Prior knowledge:
The complex is a heterodimer. By secondary structure, chain A is an all-alpha fold. Chain A contains 16 helices and no strands. The longest helix of chain A has 32 residues, at 310-341. Chain B is of the alpha+beta class. Chain B is 25% helix and 37% strand.
Amino acid sequence: MSISNLLLPAVLFFALGFLARVIRSDLRFPPDLAKVLSIYLLMAIGLHGGYELAKVDLVVALNSIMWALILGFSLPVIGYIALVATRKVNPMDAAAISAHYGSVSAGTFLTAIAYLDNINVSYETYPLIMLAVMESPAIIVGLILAARARQSLARESTVVSSGETAAIAADAGVNGGGAGFLALLRDAFTNGSVVILVGSMVIGAISTPSGMEKLFPFINDIFMGVLCLFLFEMGMVASRRISDFRKVGWVLGMFGIVMPLVGGVIGVYVGSNILGFSVGGATLVAVLGASASYIAVPPAMRLAVPEANPSFYLTLSLGITFPFNVIVGIPLYHTMAQALAG
Amino acid sequence: MVTLYPEKLLSIITNDSMEERIVGMFKKYGVSGYTIFRVGGAGSSGLETDMTGFDANILAKVIVPEERLGVLLDSIERKLRKGYHLTVYISDVQVITPEKFNQHLE
Lengths: 342, 106
């Protein structure tokens, strides 16, 4: 893990974006640009993956999907237990935060791909399928954890019978945060990133090869440039978010670093030893385990767990975990994958 | 001289993920129309930068006759009890076409 690994244009632009906010530059990207860029990135990576899908072994693919589900369902539970044990957050915040850590960040995943490409390490297509699968399960776990917390909160406040709060908690417990569980399930599986990613993979897989080749300039040639632009803006977002650090505090801040390490270790083991991927593939699975969502999960948590404080999960995911993974995490997971491979 | 008629202006600031619910509430309780702005700011939910679209706020405005305000406020109160972050305020406004605000959306 040498410093030259960090001298990747995309990572340097992330640093530049971060710096621009620190020195209070008036630099501002047009509103919604990051959204546009992430639509492009998901579309390009989906088409690319779909094109490669023909070479995929069905048994390995199904096995990867199964393990993606296992990771997506178990990581938030680990995060929740750890957060509740710190006694620094209430169970509602713990449920919302841990849902972010079970889901994935496509931005981190793409940075890892740029990193692997840069050092000429090849990787399998399966982690991309896992990326699409892992967007949603953690949202469901977050909802279940929040519903449980809500019920026990309702019980507690009935015992102390503090009038108004008991009524509020009971009301919330009955109505499950006010949002129909089925509607939220539908939202979890039809969220924009999943539709773009899965849809593009299908299009990439069923399109004629000659038609796909015409798209190569769009999905391959300009890809790294767009990733630079995206990370440039994400650097500014992270810098802005981390200024909320005081509200989050040291214990939660540490969670934003320790949790990705735990997820990364589990991910690299699953990728390398259970799924038998190459070093590149195992690194990508580690990144899936380590990264925290900032696109799909926050709006879902705002609707389903309104009691949780959004500044906690957004600061952790965008301000701490995303920069940590981009700068320290990815090279580290790659080193771990190399060590496991022997 | 144009005659002016009193109406109530209800303003709600909340996260843009709530837009569908707020609009649903407006339709359910029979408002005549609404206007939504994308806005940024900071408050009890922390910073809402509106830099990226990941954390934008909306400001929803609706003009209603006073007698229809009650059901809307009841619905808002239920949302607040559930923990949703809404900043709500009501102001007195004057309009020149009161019949416009007596209609129902849809």
